[in-house]
Structures are given as structure tokens and as C-alpha cells.
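Q: I'm building a small set of examples for a reading group on sequence design. Run inverse folding on the following structure and report the sequence directly after it, with nothing in between.
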């Protein structure tokens, strides 16, 4: 047990913070034992081929597998007729189990960096302000739009009706003046 009462999992002399990583290390340990049983160390050329295939295939992900690869690498470096450039370096890809656990527990937001979340929040606020400004422009503008088209059309017809009524009254007045009509 560690100081903060977190459970520690031990595999092959290495301690792991979580069970998933420890299980993967156990699988790799079984694979290492299998390969040790099948590999004849008396044939360094064959050991080199097996080593390079494991490195190229990225067969291991935990320190258990990496330590075995390092052991083979050191052995191959002691063989005088094997060139050092033929011995490939061990690619180490760090797997963040804690981030994966947070991602599963908290969804995608739990795994995003703080700057991305802040940037997204700022962008959302800017877009919301743009939408409000667009509505204000639409409401106060003089051209008809989806928000005020009915009012605009009614006002326009009322103005035409009033203008026609005024013209009709003016025509009737002129008719009376010249004695045309009834």
C-alpha cells in the first residue's frame, strides 16, 4: 500500500497504479516467458531477427516487456559480429492509464486539456453574442424579414389604402367642382 491508501499491483518486480496496467503486464510476462522458452540464445542472428520483429511490431507496452527487450538488446551488443546499427532502438509509447480512466468516467470533457475547454467556452459565448446581435438587427431593421414581415406588410397595405382613400376623395371633389358624375 502507498501513503495515500491507493492499491498497488505488483508484476515481475514492478508496481503498477491500476489493475488494467497490471493485467497487461501479466500478459506481457507470459509472452516473455513463452519467447524465452522458444528462443535459442546460442544463435545470435536468430535472436536479432526475433528482437527486431518484436520492436517493429511494438509487441510490448509495459515496463515488463521493455525490460525484456532491453535485456535482449544488451545481449546482442555483446556479440562482436552483429553491427550496432542492425539492433533497432526500443520504441517507448507512454500509455496514460489515468487519462483513459478519466475519459471513461467523465466522457470526453474529462480528458480534454484545460485550454481547449476554455477556448471552447469563449467561442460559445462569442457565437451566442453574435446570435443576439443578429436578432436585434432583424427586429430594428426596416426591411421585412421572418420576424417582422407580417407587421411590415400590414403597414404597407394600410398606407396604400389611406393614399387611395385620399386620392378618391380628391377625385370626387374635382368631379363635384366640374359637375361630372351624378
Amino acid at each position: 500500500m502507498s501513503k495515500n491508501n491507493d492499491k498497488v499491483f505488483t508484476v515481475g518486480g514492478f508496481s503498477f497504479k491500476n489493475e488494467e496496467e497490471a493485467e497487461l503486464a501479466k500478459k506481457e510476462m507470459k509472452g516473455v516467458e513463452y519467447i524465452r522458452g522458444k528462443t535459442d540464445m546460442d544463435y545470435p542472428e536468430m535472436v536479432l531477427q526475433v528482437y527486431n520483429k518484436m520492436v517493429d511490431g511494438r509487441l510490448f507496452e509495459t515496463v515488463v516487456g521493455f525490460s525484456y527487450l532491453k535485456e535482449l538488446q544488451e545481449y546482442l551488443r555483446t556479440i562482436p559480429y552483429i553491427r550496432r546499427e542492425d539492433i533497432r532502438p526500443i520504441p517507448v509509447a507512454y500509455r496514460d492509464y489515468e487519462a483513459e480512466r478519466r475519459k471513461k468516467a467523465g466522457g470526453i470533457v474529462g480528458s480534454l486539456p484545460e485550454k481547449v475547454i476554455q477556448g471552447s467556452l469563449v467561442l460559445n459565448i462569442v457565437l451566442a453574442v453574435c446570435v443576439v446581435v443578429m436578432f436585434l438587427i432583424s427586429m430594428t431593421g426596416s426591411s421585412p424579414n421572418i420576424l417582422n414581415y407580417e407587421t411590415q406588410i400590414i403597414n404597407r397595405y394600410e398606407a396604400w389604402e389611406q393614399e387611395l382613400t385620399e386620392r378618391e376623395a380628391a377625385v370626387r371633389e374635382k368631379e363635384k367642382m366640374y359637375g361630372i358624375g351624378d
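The beta strands are 9-11, 14-16.
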